[in-house]
Design goal:
Layout lengths: L50 E2 L14 E3 L4 E4 L9 E4 L9 E9 L6 E25 L2 E6 L6 E15 L6 E9 L3 E11 L2 E2 L32 H20 L1 H4 L5 H14 L3 H14 L17 E3 L9 H4 L1 H12 L10 E2 L6 E2 L14 H18 L10 H13 L4 H13 L21 E2 L2 E6 L2 E7 L4 H5 L6 E5 L2 E2 H8 L8 H11 L6 E9 L2 E11 L16 E5 L2 E5 L8 H8 L4 E5 L9 H5 L7 E9 L7 E9 L9 E6 L6 H10 L4 E5 L9 E6 L3 E6 L2 E3 L15 E2 L4 H5 L4 H11 L5 H7 L3
Parallel strand pairs: 23-24, 24-27, 27-28, 28-32
Antiparallel strand pairs: 1-10, 2-5, 3-4, 4-10, 5-9, 6-7, 6-8, 6-9, 6-10, 10-11, 12-26, 13-14, 15-21, 16-17, 17-18, 18-19, 18-20, 20-21, 22-23, 25-26, 25-31, 29-30
């Protein structure tokens, strides 16, 4: 059985620490709850005070008791402080306007009260995105309350200012996660933080008992799995592959596991030695059968769960549990009996986010203290991610890989990794097999090739397969670097770019080639600081440039292709222009009033929307209720099944914009931007113009992985009302227009030019079109 889910979508920014909203953009950047050693929320904050002031921390280190990430972007600063000698500096990696870094602390909700306040002082320097305090309450693995100050739009350079956010104490919430963040580029400092309940310091709040689980009582492997491997034989790989499938099946189907009575990660470590020692398939079947029998009796259900075939879009691949050639008769019958006797929809390790339906992987511990190598925890990471895709990924049917073959391939690669960096890169390669731009090892981008603290001061973009200098990362980089706009980089460090791209590609988790080349372009010049030989093609000439890789700090790494400057403008009396990277919902009536007499409105979505305006703006583009999207979500009673839910529609709102609408898209258009484009396209007045989008939409679900790492997946399926998919395919333009190398060299925006031409008409003179569309 399953319940109907009503979808509520709110604004959010991809990869920021948010939960429960439309994840075109939603995730959590914080670590998963840790067993036993969590701080008490009612303990003193620091040094006997209720103020988090970082005075006890060493400059240059990560603040004690906090999680900061990605690695190297959050550290104690001994030169800048609001009071005392220290603050924490947050300096996001320069990988685009939507890159971010977070300072994070997690506390149990072991206190009573009505309102929680998180306040402190912030200072910023050249922040291109936004900075803020943030706070989140989690209940049953999903977000119950959240604020991150995004709408306050704190950016640029500001002096020390005190800010405050408040949340109601949500009934039943188990975990409080709070901290500070900065997105884009630049720096932010935070100091003198305070956590208050009903206006009083947290240490004075009445205590309440927090419900304990098996994760709080089973600590046998807290210090390590005890599994050490130097090699794996073919027999061991096959046996481990079978274990991985059985372990995942039991995780989501056996009542002892789904009810939370077993620490399932640690049960893996208890069975692994016997599986590794099994000499053949017959022996491992016996090991697995004895293990299952020892878990407890599965009673015959009186009110058994059944799979509702009405609205079924995707069903679980469970044919293998009935395969007696693979499993033998006894093991197969045991698994089939467990599957047939599912009695309720309870799941301990996963839930569906309220109001949305994307999976929330509660009770998945991140084990940040692993000492490498630890083959057991490394195998656990593979099993956890592999089975989450197997049962909870709405787009697994279009992965394109033999998912069982992926499990076998990565067992030796991940289990035998000897160092943390090697392990992270193998996880990246595994995650890339899903072909989901939302999926990545987001905690570990610093080890994704090419690595290095410095980069060339240029903004790269692939035009076809050519890596082109599309702009510069600082005002004087064009004259100092030796590069010119439109240069095609052919060689780096003596290596052909096409060979480098081929070597890097396995570590880039993207839905399609357009998104992959976009992401490679953003990082391809990374490397050691200092001189680098660069081969370029300038027109018909081959040129060698002796360039300098410089620290990325202070560089402006462009990740949008819209016009600089004002959010809304009249390009001419007939053509209005609105870019969504800085759109304000409260300004929409003003935009439309100014555009009312124009022939057409260009909505530039070659960016990520600053606010969620699907309904606030899209409703002005339709004259009758118009469906624009429908979804699939998972089924806790039938792990692996996904069902259609009710489509969403735009409802007309005044003032109606009567002119032509041209939506511009390209490889930067991702997630919320793609979802927004779908909505605007529902209007018969809209033409979508540009090139392939990133192909990743749907609420994002965070996946903690052993080692303190974090991945994600697109957690719900996003389809057009007729059932056509968007994942991997992206938003297919009505008219394909791509920039050219010549256009970049000449400083033209050829996509915008075509948008202007569509509004003014094909007969419009070329020089007029260019002048109207001039950046």
């Amino acid at each position: 059985m399953r319940s109907t889910v009503f979808f509520v979508f709110v604004a959010c920014v991809c990869l920021l620490p948010m939960g429960g909203a439309h994840g075109q953009s939603v995730t959590t950047a914080s670590p998963t709850a840790k067993p036993a050693a969590q701080d008490s929320a009612t303990a003193k904050a620091a040094g006997g005070s209720d103020v988090f002031d970082f005075e006890g921390d060493a400059a240059g280190s990560a603040p004690a008791g906090w999680w900061g990430g990605p690695a190297g972007t959050v550290q104690v600063d001994g030169n800048v402080a609001h009071s005392g000698q220290h603050s924490v500096r947050i300096e996001p990696k320069a990988e685009g306007d939507r890159s971010f870094s977070t300072l994070t602390k997690t506390l149990p909700m072991d206190f009573a009260g009505s309102v929680i306040e998180w306040r402190g002082f912030l200072k910023t320097e050249d922040v291109s995105g936004f900075a803020g305090l943030w706070m989140r309450e989690d209940k049953d693995g999903a977000t119950a309350e959240f604020d991150n100050m995004q709408k306050r739009n704190i950016n640029g350079t500001t002096g020390w200012t005190e800010y405050s956010i408040t949340l109601p104490v949500h009934p039943g919430a188990q975990r409080l996660v709070m901290g500070a963040l900065a997105s884009g580029t630049g720096k932010a400092w935070v100091d003198d933080l305070e956590l208050l309940v009903d206006g009083k310091p947290i240490s004075q709040a009445p205590k309440v008992e927090v419900a304990k689980s098996v994760l709080d009582s089973d600590h046998q492997f807290d210090g390590g799995s005890g599994i050490a491997l130097s090699d794996l034989t073919p027999v061991q790989i096959e046996n481990l592959a079978l274990l991985g499938k059985v372990w995942g099946f039991l995780k989501y189907n056996h009542p002892q596991v789904t009810s939370g009575k077993l620490h399932w990660d640690y049960e893996l470590f208890r069975i692994l030695p016997a599986v590794l020692a099994a000499p053949d398939r017959v022996a491992v079947r016996g090991v697995l059968l004895n293990w299952i029998n020892g878990l407890g009796t599965v009673e015959r259900c009186k009110d058994c769960e059944t799979l509702d075939l009405v609205g079924l879009e995707l069903r679980a691949d469970l044919d293998w549990i009935g395969d007696e050639v693979l499993l033998g008769s006894d093991l197969s019958k045991a698994l089939v009996s467990i599957q047939q006797n599912r009695a309720n929809a309870n799941q301990f390790y996963v839930s569906l986010a309220p109001g949305v339906g994307n999976p929330a992987f509660e009770h998945e511990l991140s084990y940040g203290n692993i000492k490498y190598p630890d083959a057991g925890f490394q195998i656990l990471a593979l099993y956890r991610f592999w089975n989450i895709i197997e049962y909870w990924a709405p787009n697994r049917d279009i992965v394109g890989e033999d998912w069982n073959g992926v499990l076998r391939e990565f067992l030796p690669r991940i289990a035998l990794a000897k160092t943390s960096d090697e392990y992270q890169r193998e996880l990246m390669a595994l995650i890339a097999m899903v072909h989901d731009t939302h999926a990545n090892l987001w905690s570990s981008l610093s080890v994704r090739p090419p690595v290095g603290e410095c980069r060339l001061p240029v903004n790269m973009r692939f035009i076809g397969r050519s890596a082109v200098v599309a702009g510069f990362a600082s005002a004087d980089a064009g004259t100092k670097s030796g590069f010119k706009a439109g240069d095609v980089v052919t060689d780096l460090d003596g290596q052909p770019v096409d060979k480098l791209v081929a070597n890097w590609t396995p570590f880039y988790a993207d839905s399609n080639e357009a998104a992959r080349l976009r992401d490679i372009a953003r990082t391809m010049t990374n490397g050691p600081c200092g001189a680098v030989a660069v081969g370029i093609r300038r027109g018909n000439d081959a040129v060698s440039v002796q360039a300098q890789r410089l620290p990325a700090t202070g560089m402006t790494i462009s990740s949008t292709h819209d016009l600089p400057g004002d959010t809304f403008r009249l390009l001419s009396p007939d053509v209005a222009y609105l870019k969504l990277s800085s759109v304000k919902a409260v300004e929409i009536d003003r935009y439309l009033t100014l555009a009312a007499k124009t022939k057409g409105l260009i909505v530039d979505i070659r960016n990520y929307p600053s606010e969620f305006v699907v309904f606030a703006l899209g409703s002005h583009f339709v004259e009758k209720p118009t469906e624009f999207v429908k979804f699939t979500n998972g089924d806790l009673s039938n792990p692996g099944a996904f069902h259609w839910v009710v489509p969403l529609s735009l409802t007309p709102a005044a003032p109606h914009y009567a002119g032509k609408i041209v939506a511009l898209v390209d490889e930067v258009t991702q997630s919320s931007a793609e979802y927004t484009t779908m909505a605007f396209r529902a209007s018969p007045q809209t033409v979508v113009l540009g090139s392939t989008t990133a192909g990743a939409d749907g609420n994002v679900s965070s996946i903690p992985l052993p080692g303190g790492f974090n991945s994600m997946i697109s957690g719900i399926g996003i389809f057009y009302p007729d059932g056509k998919p968007t994942q991997q395919i992206g938003i297919v333009p009505d008219k394909i227009v791509r920039p050219t190398i010549e256009g970049i060299r000449d400083g033209r925006d050829e996509v915008l030019e075509e948008g202007v031409r569509l509004i003014l008409g094909a007969e419009a003179p070329a020089d007029l079109v260019r002048s109207v569309a001039k950046p």
